[in-house]
């Protein structure tokens, strides 16, 4: 009996000790880690869009936040987007895609980035009796007031854990490029999803092809592989890429599950995103009273 | 149990006589899965080296307080703590290195070699010997991973350290996990053969 008590005591003590060490490290490093992640995301975004270091002056990046609003047993989709006048506008759409209400939200550009401030602002604007839940955010990139591209992030299950990606899309929803932000696939096998020869397969794929993209278990033809790894002169690369543009994705050797996960994940992200943007487009066109930058 | 080996012998022991991969045949699963290139081997090797040294020293420091019946949970807890600490510190201070090494650090918790060294060595020996033993084991693992990685990278993708040297890919099979076992097996046979030859030549003298 005494033995058991000592065991319990010591095991508890070592657990507390370990938790203290890990907790302290977490507290000390968390800020720097978050900062590094933010810097990395920004760099990835710029490189996907083809800017070097900084965005040109004519380019504006507006963030749109999507929320799920529940009110009296019904659900609505809410979009927080910058308004044409200063401040932000919160649009609420019902599940059929019709505009329900649009409210002015009084927020500054700094405050909108903080989740707590942002949600407080929305709640103030739409009044009590509503519950909101954050769903996702995406960025609309415009060049000289013309919509130029979208930047979306997403997560989907890979072979082991979730794979987080950032993807840049043209206004016709063809892929400009994508980057893996975070994954825990096996190095050398599923980890190859980070390699150019896999990522470049998705480059410039049109929406019609991505909509029902599949993965085929065949070795990549040599000329295509060379083009994907950018080993050839640019004109030749363009020619070969054009030839394979309508094709499916070639799987990774020994990691078909990871390759399928990425292809399906991107397919799902693009399909949903295209649907949402077309809804938003029709809403802003039909209702002249809605004055948002989109 | 007193330890009569010098620090140098402890390190050499980990690399040669008790090499974790070729002699003890421990931690085969991750070793075989990941050692497809030299660079992967180096990354995993460095990560293991650090966790092994830190864990060995910690256990050696606290060896008198660890109840013998709960030593394995305590070891696992120690390893997990160090893995977390190294993972977080790396992410905060060296983002570039973390981008490459992050996935390697996270899989170390389940490595048999580290637990086994704590059980066999660190829980009986003084702190300094445990440090050198941990260093030797870590280096032994690193060497083993690099050798296997080199063989598999040359035979599987015709390259070394990412540089194309053969110009073609001899056998894609060597990249797949199952090939790791063949390479490790052949390596073991090779090392044992050298050992036998060496012993015979000594006997004859």
Describe the SSE topology:
The complex is a heterodimer of chains A (294) and B (205).
Chain A: H1 2-49, E1 59-71, E2 74-82, E3 88-93, E4 99-105, H2 115-126, E5 131-143, E6 146-157, E7 162-170, E8 175-182, H3 196-199, H4 207-211, E9 215-216, H5 222-228, H6 234-244, E10 249-250, H7 256-286
Parallel strand pairs in A: 9-10
Antiparallel strand pairs in A: 1-2, 1-5, 2-3, 3-4, 5-6, 6-7, 7-8
Helix pairs in contact in A: 5-6
Chain B: H1 7-15, H2 28-34, H3 38-61, H4 71-93, H5 95-106, H6 112-122, H7 127-157, E1 159-160, E2 163-164, H8 177-204
Antiparallel strand pairs in B: 1-2
Helix pairs in contact in B: 1-7, 2-8, 3-4, 3-5, 3-6, 3-7, 4-5, 4-6, 6-7
Key features?
heterodimer, A: alpha+beta, 3 domains, two-stranded parallel ribbon, 7 helices, B: mainly alpha, globular
How far apart, in Å, are the first and last alpha carbons of chain A?
71 Å
Structural shape of chain B = globular
Please, what is the average pLDDT of chain A? 86
State the total count of DSSP E strands of chain B. 2
